[in-house]
Every structure is written in structure tokens, then in C-alpha cells.
């Protein structure tokens, strides 16, 4: 079968690439290995699809932030929302600038995209995995288990490796590598973290606002948000946002349990002084969760039943250090099956951010999560997928 452009992957990046190309009069065919298109759109944001964010900056991306922002500036959050308004979908803004459909249903977004594909004559071939790709002369040939396709432009938008159930695939990276593209090793991101030690066991089930700082000799980044203690370590937005950089070799991670307070030492002295006869554990229980107090005192080998007046200046110092800057031993991320995005992927210096065209192969475009770009939670990954797909669809011949 012959098309003007073939698109591998019916995720947000592939689908918008197809729509954009078809609006320019191109015959677009999308190959999707899943039984349905857009599985991750449906699952995103807990079924509510956090599609974008009102504030996009380099700080919202862990890998290659400048590249990500350059691509998004070619098709901004505003442009994405007006693209969807044109399809009859409206949005609202929630806390932290998160943008979700007014219906609060991800299916609204997917339905609109699929209806537009149908209206434009975009063919979406589900249950067809692209198994091999080659370019001969000016033509690309893609083989699936069912057919052979050819086109003058090819978009690889195969996504990442996360969430097997939703159609994860390593094939996209393999196909790009087959064209000579460098693949930065892929690893789970936006994923819970496994810890060694015992304090988190004692805090299992505790959820509290915190901030995690990731430090390496080269950089320091802090991720605020809710933190959840589990049987294996930590989860919640704060831990997930920190996971991409926090699992890199050489990274050190620290929890601040009181990110909103200015002078914990002064607060602590006041708490203990005004309650001299109270047990230390009780005196501290207004600061952080009770389970956290117990875990903290046990780590520091301070008797929780000792009275407040007997706490030494040295102990106050060490309690403060733990509250502000508790070093945790991250043993690794949970698996790809738990990872909302994939860090690593196609090396971005080999792709033009203004067109998404490969700098190695003319007519080849690479979009979405397959690239070495990963954002924190808040709608940035969807926005990047849609922006890069749009740019590819607008640029291809
Ligand atoms: C549970 C969950 C919730 C999420 N929530 C949010 C959120 O609220 N906001 C946000 O910004 N991000 C969210 N994300 C991340 C976001 O969904 C992804 O970053 C985004 O879908 C990436 O889009 P994509 O088009 O690049 O890839 P994908 O959406 O992964 O699409 C790629 C498609 O390519 C197909 N494919 C792969 N290889 C082949 C092949 N060889 N042949 C044919 N087809 C192939 C796959 O089956 C897949 O359908 C979430 C992710 C998960 C897993």
C-alpha cells in the first residue's frame, strides 16, 4: 500500500502528526500494534488526561529541557488547546496549572482525535506492528505482519517502554537505531523509587507534603509535592518527579519533610522548651506525621519517651538535619511496568527541533516519548508528544 506519509504509533504524537499532514492534503496511514489507538491517552491523568500545563519552562523537563521547550514553542500549550477547541473539546485549569478536559474524561480527547482522523481520511491500521523499515532511494518501506507499506515520509512515534499493558515497545528505538540514530539508554521515569534501609518501613502508608532534592557534582534540583511511603520505598508526585535524575549513577537524594517552614531549628527549640515535661515524641508530633516522628527518633537512636527538657543541643541539631535533609539510599526505580514515561531514547542532537526531521535521513521524522525527553508530572509529557507530532506533521514533504 502506498501513502504520502507513514506514521508508526497511534499515540498522541503519531495521531496529531497524521491529522496535521492530512490537513495539508497528504494521504496519511498510521500503523499501531495495539488493538486500539491512543491507549495512553485514555489512561492518562487517572482517566482525566492532564494534557498540558499553563506554565511550561525548561525546569519542567529532566532530560534535554532546552530541546523540549524549543519544540513546544513551535506548538504551544495555547495552540494545542485551540486545536482541540476546533474539534469541540474544551479544557479547564486545575491546581499547579494542570490542564484537563472540561468533561474530566480522557475519552473526550481521544474521541475528538479519532473522529478528526476519520473525517480527513487518515487510515489507522490497528493490530499491525511495524517490524522492519528501510529506505531505498527516496521511498520508505515498512513491513508489518500483514502488509508492506511505502511512502516518501516516515514518522516514528512509537513511544516509550513504560506500562506494558498500554502497548509499551522497544521496537520504536530499534527502528530508529536501524537508521543510524544513537539511542541514549532507556530507563524508567515518573516511577516510584525503591529504597534501602528501614525507616520507610516504619512510615508505610504515610502521605505528606515534602520536597526531594537530587544532588550530583554537576547540578541540584528540588521536586516539591506529596510523598507517599510504601513497603518498598517512596511514591507520590514528589518521588516520581525526582526519579529520572535521582536514579542516575552518582546522584544523591535528600527529603525535606518541612519544605514550607523557614526556621525548623527555632520551631523545634520552641516546641521542646514550651513542653518540658512532655515526651519528645509527643512534643514533635505536631511537626510531622506520628509514624515519621517515631522513625526519625529511632534512626537517631533518641528515646521517644525521654522528656523534652533533656534533649541536648546536639540532638536538636541532628533532628533538624533529618527533617530538612534526610539522605535516602535509592536502590533503583520500580520497573518499566510502573513507569509513566521513559527517560532516554533517540539522541535529540540528531533531530531538528523546528521540523522533527532526522539530521541523518531525509524524510524521516521522530516524535514523542521515543526521543530522549522526559518531563515531570503536570501535563508536560503529553504536551511534548502533541507538539513534536504536530511539528512533524506540519513539516513532512
Ligand atoms: C498511566 C499513565 C498515565 C499518564 N498520564 C499522563 C498525564 O496525565 N499527562 C501527561 O502529560 N503524560 C501522562 N503520561 C505520559 C504520556 O501518556 C506519554 O508521554 C505520551 O502518551 C507519549 O506519547 P507518544 O505518542 O510519544 O507515545 P505513546 O502514547 O506511547 O504511543 C506510541 C504508540 O506506538 C505504538 N507502537 C510502538 N511501537 C510500534 C510498532 N513497532 N508498530 C506499531 N505501533 C507501535 C504503541 O503501541 C503506542 O500506541 C501517562 C502515562 C501513563 C502510562
Structure in words:
The protein is α+β, with helices and mostly antiparallel strands and 397 residues long. It folds into two domains: 5-187 and 338-395, FAD/NAD(P)-binding domain (3-Layer(bba) Sandwich), CATH 3.50.50; 192-334, no CATH class. The chain is built from 13 helices and 21 strands. The protein has a six-stranded antiparallel β-barrel with strand order 13-16-15-14-17-18. Strand 14 and strand 15 form a beta hairpin. The structure holds flavin-adenine dinucleotide. Residues 8-14, 31-34, 39-40, 43-45, 49-50, 129-130, 157-160, 162-163, 166-167, 169, 171-172, 340-341, 368-369, 379-382, 385 line the site of flavin-adenine dinucleotide.
Topology-level CATH name of the largest domain: FAD/NAD(P)-binding domain
Strand order in the largest sheet? 13-16-15-14-17-18
| Class based on secondary structure composition and strand pairing | alpha+beta
Report strand %: 15-25%
Overall pLDDT confidence:
95
CATH class group of the largest domain? Alpha Beta
- Tell me the overall shape: elongated
Ligands in the model, by name, code or SMILES, are: flavin-adenine dinucleotide
Distance between the termini: 18 Å
Any descriptors?
single chain, 397 residues, alpha+beta, FAD/NAD(P)-binding domain, 2 domains, six-stranded antiparallel beta barrel, 21 strands
